[in-house]
Structure to design on (691 residues):
């Protein structure tokens, strides 16, 4: 039996846990408030953050819909406009729904004709969502409320009569933030036929607290598809542009592999939900994403026989791989086909090269026509475009290039700026380099290093090394006001592209998961050693940080090599590798980590589990563990137990602190003020301890 003395911290609402959280926050606040630079850093972060940020617009009927934050608004606001250069009106302002900015707009979907908006709200950072419906033209809400949705988008039928979404039956034990989530289902919500007297004006009442939702509400919508025999299946549902097909994509946990099911909605069934759902691509042997269709020919982005991605055409009645036609082939070398959309008579593709991205317009037969010009080496934040529209909008960003929205007209190749932010900093004062360094086994790993221009490599600089390395997620160049503030104060920022991510496709991901997970930690440790040996910093002035799976990365590396780092900031991390599967959606991560209930997997997990590799009597680096009191993605028990164990084991003088946010979750939807306060505390902590 492996000791677990702090298991009582797994109950977020237990009186002992509440008391412990309060005591830890008081201890941390006493330390942080004594740092002279803290207020100065927060003031500078506030100034940097105070700039207008827009997302790319998307055309629906007569309306362009886009999001915008004026600068310091707690949440971004949804706008509508009839012309791209005309005045915009507020469509939905989530800041009116709570007094503290903790009600977040987490998902939106507009009907094809632009009449209806389905929008999902979440409270205090929770993954639980409640869907509502708004009349786009008038801005008033229908009485509909659709609770108990999670890990879901919404997709309208072509006629706007309703939308598909995914969700769970509510937890029977009442533990909304810890109960295991299984039994995902695709559901259909029929729009209320008429808007009656119960319609609410925008902002007329606060969104309902998730704790008070009526479990019985789940049964009001039709269940379209689910699998009682496979409770670990997860689903997404999308209606094709022609309105004929409902495409249901099924994954198992966080596996890359997926299955595709179809429902033909062109028949005479009384309801869309009455038609049978039939398998289309059900081998579960690769990743599949339906991009578009022409009648019964589907264009699918897949890594089947193409680990870095290709676009193929598949006829419904000839779905065997031998009958597929390749439209955009897998690229030679190491380039990854990251995403594709159909816009007009072209495919617009995002290609990833050595962890940065470019956009290429391809003809319908797949032939490349042109590269879309981009200002610097960076990445595509998001991209919108529809088949019947002539243009594509995309947000582009890099470490010192704030996210800018561009418009590209596919037929002419014309590219223009639609929204350019004005940020209070001098981008030319900084420089970015990309280096490649060998990991422990000789694998070539890329890393971006950003700092003030003309930096002298004299080993004197505080350096913050950031990583993730998991779940096929790629770290690409992205602008952050927080990083600018760090660099303005002389700091160096480094971002390593570790195995386990998706930077180089399937093989790169596989090389950093399951029995290969140690490769990720070796890659990160090698990045730290590179920064030290090449004169950027010293161990005493080097900090490591990462969130979620990146929190696991930090926890594993600081327990394996406590001598290598001056500070560590594991945020909302997966730190107890023997019990992660017992909370909310944690079971889904077994695809990357393995199953702790399997003896072979458990042996691998135990070797690197941060919680179980803390050794009493060890000098650990200064540590600030960050979590939230009701994170229902990665339970705060991970961070709490790690903190308590680390504090008990620490033999050195460095502080072991934890910062536990309240009325907050995993990070998504966190109000701007909370984000600024957290970043200020992190930078202040690092300035205080990196000597």
């Amino acid at each position: 039996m492996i000791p677990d003395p702090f298991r009582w911290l797994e109950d977020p609402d237990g009186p002992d846990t509440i008391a412990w959280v309060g005591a830890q926050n008081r201890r941390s606040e006493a330390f942080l408030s004594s740092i002279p630079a803290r207020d100065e850093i927060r003031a500078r972060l506030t100034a940097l953050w105070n700039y207008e940020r827009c997302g790319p617009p998307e055309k629906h009927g007569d309306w362009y819909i886009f999001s915008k934050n004026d600068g310091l608004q707690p949440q971004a606001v949804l706008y509508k406009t009839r012309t791209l250069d005309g005045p915009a009106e507020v469509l939905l302002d989530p800041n009116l729904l709570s007094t503290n900015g903790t009600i977040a707009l987490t998902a939106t979907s507009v009907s094809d004709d632009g009449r209806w908006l389905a929008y999902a709200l979440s409270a205090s950072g929770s993954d639980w969502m409640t869907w509502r419906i708004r009349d786009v033209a008038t801005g008033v809400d229908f009485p509909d409320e659709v609770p108990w949705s999670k890990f879901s988008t919404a997709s309208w039928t072509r006629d706007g009569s309703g939308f598909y979404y995914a969700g769970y039956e509510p937890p029977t034990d009442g533990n909304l933030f810890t109960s295991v989530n299984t039994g995902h289902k695709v559901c259909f919500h029929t729009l209320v036929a008429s808007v009656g007297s119960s319609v609410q004006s925008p902002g007329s009442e606060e969104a309902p607290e998730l704790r008070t939702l009526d479990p019985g509400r789940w049964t009001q919508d039709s269940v379209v598809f689910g699998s009682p025999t496979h409770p670990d299946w997860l689903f997404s549902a999308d209606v094709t542009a022609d309105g004929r097909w409902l495409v249901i994509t099924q994954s198992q946990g966080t596996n890359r592999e997926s299955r595709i099911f179809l429902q033909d909605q062109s028949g005479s069934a009384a309801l869309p939900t009455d038609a049978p759902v039939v398998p289309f691509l059900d081998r579960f042997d690769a990743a599949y994403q339906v991009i578009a269709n022409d009648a019964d020919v589907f264009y699918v982005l897949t890594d089947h026989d193409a680990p870095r991605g290709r676009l193929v055409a598949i006829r419904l009645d000839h779905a065997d791989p031998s009958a597929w036609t390749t439209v955009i082939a897998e690229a030679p070398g190491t380039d990854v086909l990251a995403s594709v959309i159909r816009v007009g008579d072209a495919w617009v593709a995002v290609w990833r090269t050595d962890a940065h991205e470019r956009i290429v317009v391809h003809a319908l037969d797949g032939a490349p026509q042109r590269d879309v010009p981009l200002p610097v080496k960076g990445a595509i934040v998001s991209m919108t475009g529809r088949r019947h529209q002539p243009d594509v909008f995309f947000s582009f960003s890099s470490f010192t290039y704030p996210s800018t929205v561009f418009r590209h007209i596919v037929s002419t190749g014309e590219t223009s700026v639609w929204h350019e932010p004005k940020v209070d900093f001098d981008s030319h004062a900084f420089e970015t380099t990309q280096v490649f360094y060998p990991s422990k086994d000789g694998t070539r790993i890329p890393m971006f290093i950003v700092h003030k221009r003309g930096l002298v490599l004299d080993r004197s600089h505080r350096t913050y090394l950031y990583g993730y390395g998991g779940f096929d997620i790629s770290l690409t160049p992205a602008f952050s006001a927080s990083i600018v503030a760090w660099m303005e104060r002389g700091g160096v920022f480094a971002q390593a592209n570790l195995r386990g991510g998706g930077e180089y496709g399937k093989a790169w991901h596989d090389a950093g998961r399951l029995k290969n997970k140690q490769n990720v930690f070796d890659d990160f440790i090698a990045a730290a050693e590179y920064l030290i040996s090449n004169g950027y910093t010293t161990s005493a002035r080097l900090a490591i940080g990462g969130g979620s799976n990146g929190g696991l990365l930090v926890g594993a590396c600081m327990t394996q090599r406590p001598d290598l780092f001056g500070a560590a900031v594991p945020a909302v991390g997966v730190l107890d590798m023997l019990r992660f599967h017992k909370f909310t959606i944690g079971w889904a991560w077994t695809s990357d980590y393995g199953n702790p209930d399997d003896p072979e997997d458990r042996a691998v997990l135990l070797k690197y589990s941060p919680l179980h590799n803390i050794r009493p009597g060890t000098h650990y680096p200064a540590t600030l563990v960050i979590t939230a009191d009701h994170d229902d993605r990665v339970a705060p028990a991970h961070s709490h137990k790690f903190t308590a164990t680390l504090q008990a084991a620490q033999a050195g003088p460095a502080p072991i602190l934890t910062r536990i946010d309240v009325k907050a979750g995993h990070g998504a939807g966190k109000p701007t003020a909370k984000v600024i306060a957290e970043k200020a505390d992190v930078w202040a902590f690092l300035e205080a301890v990196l000597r």
The first strand starts at residue 53 and ends at 54. Confidence is low (pLDDT under 50) at residues 193-219. The chain is about 15% helix and 35% strand. The chain has three domains: 56-239, 331-422, 425-577+609-689.
